[in-house]
Amino acid sequence: xxxxxxxxxxxxxxxxxxxxxxxxxxxxxxxxxxxxxxxxxxxxxxxxxxxxxxxxxxxxxxxxxxxxxxxxxxxxxxxxxxxxxxxxxxxxxxxxxxxxxxxxxxxxxxxxxxxxxxxxxxxxxxxxxxxxxxxxxxxxxxxxxxxxxxxxxxxxxxxxxxxxxxxxxxxxxxxxxxxxxxxxxxxxxxxxxxxxxxxxxxxxxxxxxxxxxxxxxxxxxxxxxxxxxxxxxxxxxxxxxxxxxxxxxxxxxxxxxxxxxxxxxxxxxxxxxxxxx
Length: 277
Hints:
The protein has helices at about 5-25, 30-35, 35-45, 70-80, 120-135, 155-165, 185-190, 195-200, 215-225, 260-275; strands at about 60-65, 140-145, 170-175, 180, 185, 205-210, 230-235. By secondary structure, the chain is an alpha/beta fold. The strands form 2 sheets. Strands 1-2-3-7-6 form a 5-stranded parallel beta sheet, with helices on both faces. Strands 4-5 form a two-stranded antiparallel ribbon. The two termini are about 15 Å apart.
C-alpha cells in the first residue's frame, strides 16, 4: 500500500472499531489498543506478506501480540483487512464468540498464537523465527510488547536468545506509552534506559514516534536491512491515542467507555479524518 494517507484512514477505522466493540462488550482494554493502532495498521496493511483468503499460507509473515489484553487492536485490524466480517466485532467477549478477551489461535483466522500471559510473546516469536532459519524459509516474524510487560524476566531471557541465534528475521516493537494498569511505568517498576538495555542484549535498536506512519515504515525498512542481529523498535506512544478524554489516562487501561463516551470518541476520530483528508 505505502500510501500514508490511506494507512492513516485505516488506522482511524481500527481505532473507531476498537472503541465501539469495547463499548458493546462493556469490557476490555481501550488504552493500550489505541496506542498500538498505528503500528498494527502499518504491519497488516503495508509490511507483512499475508493473505486474508488463505490465513495459513506457506511463507506468510507472522505477528505475535505479546500484550494479549490489547486483543481489540488485532481484531479490528484483521476485520478491516478482510480475515472475517466486521459484524463479528460487536460480539467481543460474548459467550460463544470467537473474539474473546485474549486472542485464540484456534478460533480467530489470522491469529498465529494465543496470548495473554504477559512476558511470553517474544519467546514464541523467537521459536517462529528460529524455525524459519532452520527450514531456510524467508518469512519474517513481528512481535508487539507493552512497556510494562518488559518488567517480566522472561522477556530478557528471550532477548538474549534472539541475539545468540542471530535472529535477524525477527522485529520487535515496544509500545512505550509509559502507563500500565497500576500507573506510570517509571513509578511502578522503571524499565529505562530501554535503548541501552536492548543494545546490551545484542539488538539493533531504533527509536521512533509510534504514531508517525512514515517513521514506522522507515523503521521497518531499516529492520529488514539489518543482518546478523534482531531489531527492536521502541515506539513512543500515547495511551488512548486519538480519543482526547482517554489519552494518558491510566483509568482507561481496562475500562470500557459508555455509549455517550463512545459517540464522542468516534466523532473526534471522524473530525480528524476530515481535517487530514
